[in-house]
Amino acid sequence: MASKPLLLIHGFPLTHNMWTPQITYLSSVTQVIAPDLRGFSAEGSPFSIEDLADDMCQTLDDHGASEAIVGGFSMGGYVALALAERHPDRVAGLVLVSTHPYADSNSIKQTRQQMINTIQTSGFEPQSMLSMLLTTETIESKPQLKELVLDENIPDQALVWALEAMAQRPDRMHVLKDFKKPCLIIQADLDMVMPAQAAEDMHSAMPQSTLIRVPNAAHLVNLEQPELVNEAFEKFIHKV
Ligand code: MLT
C-alpha cells in the first residue's frame, strides 16, 4: 500500500521553510504538503488555532488528500491537536515535534501580550528569537540555517494574530488520551521553549506512542539534527 501523505505544520515565528530538510528528504518517501499558515505569506484575516486546523482540512482537500500523517512543530503541534480533535478522520497519525498539549498559564499569556505590545510599537525583530530556537554551536557552525529561520517577510499582523490565538487555545490533553492511532513524539534535550515534562506526559497519555529524545538539539530539533529527525519520520511513515 502507498504511504499516506505527510502534512507538516510550521511553528512561530516561522514558515514552511523551517521544514526544508524534511521536505527535501521525505519527498522521495511520500507526498509532502507543507503550507504556510494563514497570513504568514499571503494576505490573511484574524484566526484562532481552531481556524488554522480547519484551514489545514482545506489544504488537504486542495491536495486531494482524504487523510494525512500530521506533523506539527511547536505552535504547529497546537494546530495538529486541534485538527485531531475537530477532524479526526483526516489524521492518520501524529508527529508531535517540540510541542505540548497544555493551555497557556497566566504568566505565558502576559509574556505574549508584552510581545504583542512590542510588535505593535516597534515591529518584530526575528533576530531576537534566534538564541531560543537554535544552539549557539549550530548558529556558528551552520549560519545558512538563519535563512530558514529568520523571515523578515512574515507580516507583523500575522504574528500578533498567532500570539492571540495561542493565548486563547484550550488544554488538549484529552485529545491525546482519546487518540488511538500511531503517534511519534520528538523532544530536543536542550529545548528552552517547551516544558521538559511535556513529552513524557504526552507519551504516558498514549501508550501506543513512540518518544524520541534527540541529543544536542534546541527547540528547532528538525534543523539541529536533520538526519535523526528525517530517519524517525521515514520509519514512522512506513509504519502508519
Ligand atoms: C513556537 O515555536 O511555535 C512557539 O514558541 C510556541 C509557543 O510560543 O508556545
Give a written overview of the molecule:
The chain has 240 residues and is an alpha/beta fold. The protein has a single domain, classed as Rossmann fold (3-Layer(aba) Sandwich). Helix content is 46%, strand content 12%. The chain contains 12 helices and 6 strands. It has a 6-stranded parallel β-sheet with strand order 2-1-3-4-5-6, sandwiched between helices. Strand 1 (6-9), helix 1 (20-26) and strand 2 (32-33) form a beta-alpha-beta unit. Helix 2 crosses helix 3 and helix 4 (106-122) packs antiparallel against helix 8 (156-168). The longest helix is centred in the middle third of the chain and has 17 residues, at 106-122. The mean pLDDT is 96. The structure holds D-malate.
**CATH homologous superfamily name?**
Alpha/Beta hydrolase fold, catalytic domain
Contiguous runs where pLDDT drops below 50 for at least 5 residues? none
The fraction of residues assigned to DSSP E strands is: 5-15%
CATH class placement: Alpha Beta
Bound molecules: D-malate
Q: What does the overall shape look like?
A: globular
What's the gyration radius in Å? 17 Å
Largest sheet: 6 strands, parallel
- Going across the biggest sheet, name each strand in turn: 2-1-3-4-5-6
**What percent of residues adopt helix (DSSP H or I)?**
40-55%
Counted beta strands: 6
Straight-line distance between termini: 10 Å
